[in-house]
Design goal:
Helices cover 39% and strands 14% of the residues. The protein is of the alpha/beta class and 370 residues long. The chain binds zinc ion (ZN). Zinc ion binds next to loops.
Length: 370
């Protein structure tokens, strides 16, 4: 999320050379179990990132897990639901507060105004105030960031002075080319607060199928919900699991590995990460848990006097496979943010990772369920 605030640009509005012309927000749908559909963008690395959406159709109604971060995504989700069923959307679950998982859900909410919008209490508070608002303020500086990214592509040097490979230049040139469309979608984004805040796991009966909303503790955020369908053996993790490169912003590495292992222990034939390709086993989750253990161990062993440096060399290649774009994104999305997150947590100051306004938390406590 922070890159979004450190990086940005303005001019190269045309298509970059060698770029496929599939739409920035185009979803591809897969039916992973009867009546369970997953929509995701084929290229998980393209920026801005787009979260996976899961649709579960029951006899009584439809549950949507992460309705979309951009209205263009929410519209496709709504169209998919309408193409598959006449049942109403009864439940919209928000996996965590980051806007790419909920700020594009308005088309679904407008079409089904009685939908129950469910999130963890922390997510509810973060959406009402605190981090979510700061992200919106950050978006005002986006033109400048994109200009700087455009300049970096031209000069062949990244902000830290390192050389950009040809593959990275193409990646960032495409990011710049995608900006006008991204900006259009930013202007359409709308935060709709949850109508129901939960503190613990909950089971939702959709008629003929049950959906478990799992809260396993601190992880990628302090309020991550996962979706588990025990009969269908389908697990959607939200950003507790992101592939091929995990996101470390404002996270809790000390606890996160345990949460990942808890999810990995569920019988699941299908694992839907928050971003990235659908998985058929838990091997990636194992690698992620090991990476997080190594981060937390190094932070815990760190002496307060020296700046924290974390050695990622034991794990990094399992995520980047030596690909320069993945390596750059692993730096920006995971390494840089996880160092401060791990340090805060090792010092017992993890509240700094995602500070919340107390009043906003009260708001979520008091909000009546519809
Ligand atoms: Zn996300």
């Amino acid at each position: 999320m922070r890159l979004f605030i450190i990086a940005a640009f303005a001019f190269i509005a045309g298509a970059a050379p060698g770029v496929a012309d599939d739409g920035l927000f185009d979803l591809t749908w897969r039916e992973v179990a009867r009546g369970v559909f997953v929509g995701g963008r084929e290229d998980p690395l393209r920026y801005p990132v787009v979260a996976n959406t899961t649709i579960v159709i029951g006899r009584k109604g439809v549950l949507v897990f992460d309705g979309g971060g951009y209205a263009a995504q929410g519209e496709q989700v709504l169209a998919k639901i309408r193409a598959e069923t006449k049942k109403p959307v009864t439940h919209l679950v928000i996996s965590h507060w980051h806007g790419d998982h909920h700020r594009g859900a308005a088309p679904i909410i407008d079409a089904f105004p009685n939908v129950e919008i469910i999130a963890h209490r922390f997510t509810c508070a973060a959406m009402a105030d605190g981090p979510e608002r700061r992200v919106e303020e950050g978006e005002a500086a986006l033109d400048e960031t994109y200009e700087a990214v455009g300049a970096a592509v031209k000069s062949g040097k990244w902000f830290d002075g390192s050389d950009l490979s040809e593959a990275e230049k193409a990646y960032f040139a495409r990011m710049v080319a995608d900006y006008p469309e991204y900006k259009t979608q930013l202007s359409r984004m709308k935060v709709t607060p949850p109508t129901r805040a939960i503190d613990e796991s909950a089971v939702i009966d959709l008629g003929g199928r049950k959906a478990t909303l799992l809260y396993a503790g601190l992880g990628n955020t302090a309020g991550d919900l996962a979706l588990y369908l025990p009969k269908e053996k389908v697990l959607a993790t939200g950003d507790i699991v992101v592939a091929p490169v995990p996101y470390g912003f404002g996270s809790y590495p000390e606890d996160w590995a345990r949460v990942v292992r808890q999810l990995a222990g569920l019988p699941a034939a299908t694992v839907i990460p928050g971003h990235g390709a659908i998985m058929t086993d838990a091997s990636y989750l194992g690698r992620l848990a090991t990476l997080l253990d190594h981060v937390a161990e190094q932070a815990a062993a760190h002496s307060a006097a020296a700046p924290l440096t974390i050695d990622f060399s034991a794990d990094e290649s399992a995520f980047t496979q030596g690909d320069p774009v993945k390596a750059r994104l692993f730096d920006m999305f995971f390494k840089e943010p996880i160092v401060s997150a791990a340090l805060n947590q090792a010092r017992g100051e993890s509240a700094k990772n995602e500070p919340l306004d107390g009043a906003a938390a009260d708001l979520c406590t008091l909000r009546p369920a519809r």
